[in-house]
Write a structure and sequence with these properties.
This protein is mainly alpha-helical. It has helices spanning 11-35, 39-66, 74-100, 108-129, 138-166, 170-179.
Length: 180
C-alpha cells in the first residue's frame, strides 16, 4: 500500500534554498569583515537574509506537518531545518554584535574567521545537495566541516589568548571576546 503513495520530495529543493541563503549570508558577513566600509548596511542585509531563512524554516515545518510520507524521518527533517536556521541566526548575531558594540576596526583574526565561516557554509551547501541523490558522499563533507570547525576553534582560541596577552583596554577586550 505504501508503495502506491508517493513520498513528499519537496524537501530537497527547500533545503537547497536554505543552504543557498546561508551561503549568501556568509558572503555578506565576509565582505563586511573584509571591507568594513558600511557595516550597518551589511548588518541590515544579513538581517533580511536571516528573516528569509526563518520563512524558509517555517515553510519546511508547514510542509512536514502536511506530508504523509517523507523522504526520511520527520524528526531528522525538523532537526536539519532547525540546524540550518541556527547557522544563519549565528551569522546575524555576529553582525549585530559588531554594530551593537560599536566596533570600528576589524581584527585579522575576525577576517580569518569570516573566511572559515564562508568555507564551512559552502561545504554545508554541498553536503545538503547530496541528500537526494548521493547520500554516501555526505560523510566526506562532514569531515571537511569538522576540519573547518577545528580550524575556527584554533583561530578563536589564539585570538582570545592574544587579547588577554596584549590588550590593555578592558572594554575592547570584552567586546572582542564576546564577538569571537
Amino acid at each position: 500500500m505504501f508503495g502506491l503513495i508517493p513520498k513528499e520530495e519537496k524537501f530537497f529543493p527547500m533545503f537547497h534554498e536554505m543552504t543557498k541563503n546561508i551561503v549568501a549570508g556568509s558572503i555578506v558577513l565576509k565582505e563586511m569583515l573584509d571591507n568594513f566600509s558600511d557595516p550597518l548596511a551589511s548588518q541590515h542585509a544579513i538581517k533580511e537574509i536571516e528573516h528569509k531563512g526563518d520563512l524558509q524554516t517555517h515553510e519546511i515545518i508547514r510542509t512536514l506537518n502536511k506530508s504523509f510520507i517523507t523522504p526520511f524521518d520527520r524528526e531528522d527533517i525538523y532537526s536539519l531545518a532547525s540546524s540550518l536556521d541556527d547557522i544563519i541566526d549565528a551569522i546575524d548575531t555576529l553582525a549585530q554584535h559588531i554594530i551593537i558594540y560599536h566596533i570600528d576596526k576589524i581584527t585579522p583574526e575576525a577576517k580569518e574567521l569570516g573566511f572559515i565561516i564562508l568555507k564551512a557554509c559552502q561545504t554545508v551547501e554541498k553536503a545538503v545537495a547530496m541528500l537526494d541523490n548521493k547520500p554516501q558522499h555526505i560523510f566526506e563533507y562532514c569531515v571537511e566541516i569538522n576540519s573547518l570547525e577545528g580550524e575556527a576553534d584554533r583561530v578563536r582560541a589564539d585570538a582570545i589568548s592574544r587579547l588577554f596577552d596584549e590588550e590593555k583596554d578592558p572594554i575592547f577586550l570584552i567586546k572582542w571576546k564576546a564577538i569571537y
